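Can anyone check this?
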Amino acid sequence: MQVGRYALFLGRMDIVGQIVALAAQRRVTVQINPDGSQPLELARTKAFDYSLFNLRALFDLATLGSDVGTNLFAWQSADGRSIRKALDFMTPYVDPAKVWPYPQITDYSRDDFVPLLRRAGIVYQAPAYEGLLATYYAAVLPADHVQLQNPR
């Protein structure tokens, strides 16, 4: 992300395009299983936090790609690995009644889903993500910074 942002700032769209194109093979196919799980993150002691952090980084990288005409959001490997699958693997856990079944040695905040769900609703034109926001985050959503960064 850092190199990509520097390249974008310098107007080196060719480098940004290369970084994003390589991310499909070197990041998505390595870090996401066909079911959307992120095995490298699930093996960690704070699996929820790291899975969400990695997903945010992939969203940022895909957004950077959008600036140069590369759609990493829509990219999917032959066996079904994709950023959207990773998001969909995690979305059941926005529900506080749903227990995260992987290691997590500290408390975590489900509120960290808010920006991802808004961005996903916009990028994928999927009302279900915005529906999750309305269902589980109605109290925090009006004051969340996502309203400024990604207004609906």
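Reply from J.R.: I decoded it. Residues 5 and 50 are 22 Å apart (CA to CA).
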